[in-house]
Structures are given as structure tokens and as C-alpha cells.
Design a protein that fits this description.
Number of strands: 0
CATH superfamily of the largest domain: AhpD-like
Helix content: 55-70%
CATH architecture of the largest domain: Up-down Bundle
Shape: globular
Structural class: mainly alpha
Distance between the termini: 17 Å
Order of helices and strands: HHHHHHHHH
Length: 178
């Protein structure tokens, strides 16, 4: 159970948003329910989630799923790992690739060089403290357009935001992997 329960009364518009998120995910979504204690946080988080990148040119669904999974593992957020790893095979991610996101991706030959760079950069910006190694920044910038670079970084940052929020509230995994 989370550190605090959801409020007994949730404003009507928030309740609609929560019900929509639960219909989409097929799960009881504790994060927005608990955020209903402070509607501004719930609305702001909901807007950010609604604007998350799903596919944009060469930043396809597989690449974005890898970024989300890599960030979830890097920050060791059980809820995030559960949610962002759900149905990874639908995105063309193999069991070997998924398992490697916990450790060494360099020896996985099925990853493209761009995917390896995206995973490495995601791990870099998900670490605490932040340390930007010029070599990896340069390699990543050379492999991605400016737009793709922003999508990569903002996708990883969104997972980091949710990870810190969810862990701070003590929210357990929602059972996506079951």
C-alpha cells in the first residue's frame, strides 16, 4: 500500500481523468488517485502524460519503449519498471534485450548503435548526481537530430519525474506484468 491513501472525495473532473486512465491501462491507477489530494499536481502531471511522445519519425515506438524501460531500470522504480516494461514484445523488443536493460547492453548484437546510444544517454541522465561525459554527449548528438535529441531527453525525464513522484508516495507496482 502507498504511504497515504487516496482522498475519499475526488473532484468530478479529476475523477473523469482517472477513470479514463484506468480504462486505457486496464488497471486501478493509484498515482492519479493520490495526486487528487492536490489537484494542481494531478492536472499538471496528467497534461504532461497526455503530451508524452509516442512516435515521431525515427523515434519510433520501439526506441521510445527502450528509453522508458532503460530510465525505469536506471532509477530502480518498481512501479515504472512494471508499467513501462509491459508488453515489450509488442514493440519488437526481445527477452534478451529487455533483460540487458538491467545491465550490459553493449554485448547485445540486436540493438542498433542508435539504440545503444539512446540507452546509454538515458542511463546517464537518470543517474544521480548528473554528470555529462563530453564523449557520450557528442556521440549522441551526432546520431540524433536536434528534435530527436529533445524527444530522447524529455522521454527519459518524464520517466524520472514519475519515478521520483511514485517512489516518494510509496506507490507499489500496479500489476502490469502479471
Amino acid at each position: 500500500m502507498s504511504f497515504i491513501p487516496p482522498p475519499s472525495q475526488i473532484p468530478f473532473l479529476l475523477k473523469l481523468g482517472i477513470l479514463l486512465s484506468e480504462k486505457i491501462t486496464g488497471r486501478l491507477m493509484l498515482p492519479p488517485r493520490i495526486l487528487a489530494w492536490y489537484p494542481k499536481a494531478a492536472i499538471g502531471s496528467g497534461i504532461m502524460e497526455a503530451l508524452v511522445a509516442h512516435e515521431d519519425g525515427r523515434m519510433d515506438k520501439r526506441m521510445l519503449k527502450l528509453i522508458r524501460m532503460a530510465a525505469s531500470n536506471a532509477v530502480a522504480c518498481p512501479f515504472c519498471v512494471d508499467m513501462n516494461s509491459h508488453e515489450y514484445r509488442k514493440y519488437g523488443i526481445t527477452d534478451e534485450e529487455a533483460a540487458s536493460l538491467h545491465g550490459d547492453v553493449e554485448n547485445v548484437t540486436s540493438f542498433s548503435e542508435r539504440e545503444k546510444l539512446a540507452i546509454a544517454y538515458t542511463r546517464l541522465i537518470s543517474a544521480t548526481p548528473l554528470k555529462f561525459h563530453p564523449e557520450i554527449v557528442g556521440r549522441t548528438k551526432a546520431a540524433f537530430t536536434e528534435r530527436e535529441f529533445v524527444i530522447l531527453v524529455s522521454t527519459a525525464a518524464q520517466v524520472n519525474f514519475w519515478a521520483r513522484l511514485i517512489q516518494g508516495l510509496g506507490i507499489p507496482p500496479a500489476g502490469f506484468g502479471e
